[in-house]
Amino acid sequence: MAQTLIRLLALCSILLGYCTLHAQVINDVHKYDGEHKNETWGYMTLGDNVITDFFFGMEMTYKRHLSDRWYVQGDAQMQLGKKLYSVATQGAYRLPWGWSDFYVKGKVMYNHYQRWHTNELDMSLGVTWEMPYFYVHLGASYIYFHMLDFGYWEPLTMNIGAGVNIRPRWNSWNIGVFARNYDDFYYEGYNLNWGVNFYANLKKDLRLFGEVNIRPAGSMSQLATKYENSFKIGLKHVW
């Protein structure tokens, strides 16, 4: 696995090297750049896990900056193989502080697992602290499962995540590493995922991005048998 990550980093470095002369698209992951109120991005996910073997899916997101401080966002995914269909809505308030920004974020998400006739409702609230080179996220979520005639609430789940980049996030390309117990469409107790991500601006309003995500099976044990590995690749457009 270490050799695979090294090869992926090398490939990303070569790809990003072609993009260093392009202008930046936006300042950072969340912040409004003062010009483009609308953002949309879509990506494809390829991977395998111990339950469904190979799977692939498509994800789409639309974000609207209501002001320099507020934004709202909608997300949807369709995972074939897993037979998982998801929709989500979220909003956030930005509080600037020096060179950093704090985001207070709320999210509601619905997942339908067609294969197991199961529905999942997730509600989360958290705070993300973004600096030029790294971010930290702390939050909590309630998860409700309903299958057939049975439903239950899981105990309050803490959401934790952190990531670091090799360049400030306003650069036209970047590579980073991360560890977290959540993703765009799931929260997972205390089981930490980890991986590598990158982005590169192709044009002023267009960005290429990708991510390798390694998801182990054991709770808080990165030596446990793996549950899932996945790769994301997509484009982001602002206007």
Note down, in words, how this protein is organized.
With 239 residues, this protein is mainly β. The chain is built from one helix and 15 strands; from the N terminus they run αβββββββββββββββ. The chain has a twelve-stranded antiparallel β-barrel with strand order 1-2-3-4-5-6-7-9-10-13-14-15. The chain has a two-stranded antiparallel ribbon with strand order 11-12. The chain is globular. It starts with a helix and ends with a strand.
User: Helices and strands, in N-to-C order?
Assistant: HEEEEEEEEEEEEEEE
Task: Describe the oligomeric state of these chains in a short phrase.
Answer: single chain
What does the overall shape look like? Answer: globular
Q: Which percent band covers the strand fraction?
A: over 45%
How many individual helices? 1
Nearest-angstrom radius of gyration? Answer: 18 Å
CA distance, first residue to last residue: 39 Å
Strand neighbour order, sheet with most strands: 1-2-3-4-5-6-7-9-10-13-14-15
Structural class: mainly beta
Largest sheet: 12 strands, antiparallel, barrel
Strand segment tally:
15
Characteristics of this structure?
single chain, 239 residues, mainly beta, 12-stranded antiparallel beta barrel, two-stranded antiparallel sheet, 15 strands, 63% strand
Topology:
Blueprint: H1 2-17, E1 38-49, E2 53-65, E3 70-80, E4 84-97, E5 100-113, E6 118-130, E7 134-147, E8 150-153, E9 157-165, E10 173-180, E11 182-183, E12 186-187, E13 193-203, E14 206-216, E15 226-238
Antiparallel strand pairs: 1-2, 1-15, 2-3, 3-4, 4-5, 5-6, 6-7, 7-8, 7-9, 9-10, 10-13, 11-12, 13-14, 14-15
